[in-house]
Amino acid sequence: MALPFFISHITPLTFFYFHLLYSSASASPPTAVTDLNLTSILSSFQNLTSFSSLLSSTSVASDLTRRQDPITLLAVPNPYLSLPPSSDLTRRLPPTSLGDVLRYHILLQYFSWTDLLKIPPSGVLVTTLLQTTGRAPANFGAVNITRNPLTNAITIQSPAPYSDSNATVLSLIKTLPYNITILAVNSLLVPYDFNLMASESRPPPGLNITKALIDGHNFNVAAALLSASGVVDEFEADEGGAGITLFVPTDGAFSDLPGNVRLQSLPADKKSVVLKFHVLHSYYPLGSLESIVNPVQPTLATEDNGAGSFTLNISRFNGSVAIDTGIVQASVTQTVFDQNPVSIFGVSKVLLPREIFGKDSPGVIPKPGNSAVGTSVQTPELSPSPEKSAWLSSPASSPEGLKSEGQRFRAQCGIVALYCIVLYLVV
């Protein structure tokens, strides 16, 4: 009777806990925008493949992966993208300027189709991703969305009174409540009074690289090394020329260094070379890295040590940018900063040059047990102690001894089993 009593009192409580667990699991928050691969969504629509490629090649897609706010994307289908003036813009604009034009097509607000039909004829002003860059004058980084009350046609254009760039919404492509909406529009939008060449010709931003890394929250070790070595001043001085591209290892990458690599023990000049090995003396946005023509790239360390040395092999592998030093294979994990003439990318491993950390190089500690050239170390033969020798030759280790031990063990198990049965019947 104990069993029914136990079930009647415990089962309801158990069901109650299961119900709470199920309710909390089913009430998970909606998917964040950062969990969405926007280019992957666009690639499923054949008419939006060209627009998707533009987002990837200008690093705008990587900008979106870091955002957590809802957005509405204005995408231009392939047929409209191949017509002027959209075709002219995509052909003649440099990646940085084209990137800002594309940022103008990302509204920082979620609009369902029902929301669009509720827009008043006077219109609403909506901020775009371009406005957040600080490169759009006044409020020209925003768009004005209006609705024709007779036809319900939705028009999007600059808030400037005499702007001649506008686009009409063709259709709703996809919506993922309440994070993202993709609308098809019939033309690329150009921000009013926006110098399309400004992003290519504007002066260096005077970026504090160390501060940018600290703000990235995952590059404290690299920031400390750069600051202590003094090479960061040289990097910032190079911003005014062809620009620079930095590959910065994450804090986790430094903690994953092999035990035989003594980076901190290197002399100051060698440590400086390793840090310069992480820098290209040209500005490359992510899209340019992904489509780089010459995979073997010289670094700042190459300039100090001669052509052909301290080079990086950069290629695209499994959908990301891969970097091969000859002894280390790393990948680009995130964009920390990207504004001409400086781009900073987080990488999964410390880039170790083979000239310093290759076999028999000064940056590598020999593994224990390695012998000098021309000598050999033999492991002494092990002989059993007298006690072990006696045990090994004892009768118990013979087949007959093992057999008798097994018989005794089975007999003991039978006695124990019989005792348990009797005890159960008596109780």
From TrEMBL:
Main location: membrane
Topology of this chain in the membrane: Lipid-anchor; GPI-anchor
FAS1 domain mapped to chain residues: 35-176, 206-351
Leader sequence residues: 1-27
Keyword list, A-Z: Cell membrane, Glycoprotein, GPI-anchor, Lipoprotein, Membrane, Proteoglycan, Signal
The keyword Transferase is assigned to this record: no
Subcellular location: Cell membrane
Pfam entry (one): Fasciclin
Region entry Disordered, spans: 362-399
Biased composition (Polar residues): 372-382
Family that this chain belongs to: Belongs to the fasciclin-like AGP family.
Name the record gives this protein: FAS1 domain-containing protein
Organism, as annotated: Hibiscus sabdariffa (roselle)
